[in-house]
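Note to self: keep these together.
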Amino acid sequence: MSLIDKMRGGDAENFPVSKSEAEWREELTPEQFAVLREEATEPPRSSPLNDEKRDGKFLCAGCGASLFSAETKYDSGSGWPSFYAPISAGDGGGVETKTDYKIGVPRTEVHCAQCGGHLGHLFDDGPAPTGQRYCMNGMSLDFQPSE
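Structure:
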């Protein structure tokens, strides 16, 4: 059972998009599986999405849900794609958070509201207008340019 499934009390059915561990492993690359389903973190500055500057939106690499608009992306200097606000949870997208104690101190973990995939962490050191930094693993995202 993946960490995300354990997070929901072993019931992956609590998410609108649910798949078995075997199905996730078949659909995702090993690196994506490690990040999205086992809460791994990719190395800083390793994602090509750090340099993505086009208009469009960022989707969950696990299920395709809309997560972030390119309008909210900024260069935080952290080495990971960063956003100051997610897309609204309506219309089959959005993010949820939970407290993560993985490193011994509480952090706010961000995951896809549709499939539970681990995306990254939320910090209170972002720019206006929210003051928040959604520090995301590029491996957990796909980019869809505007047409």
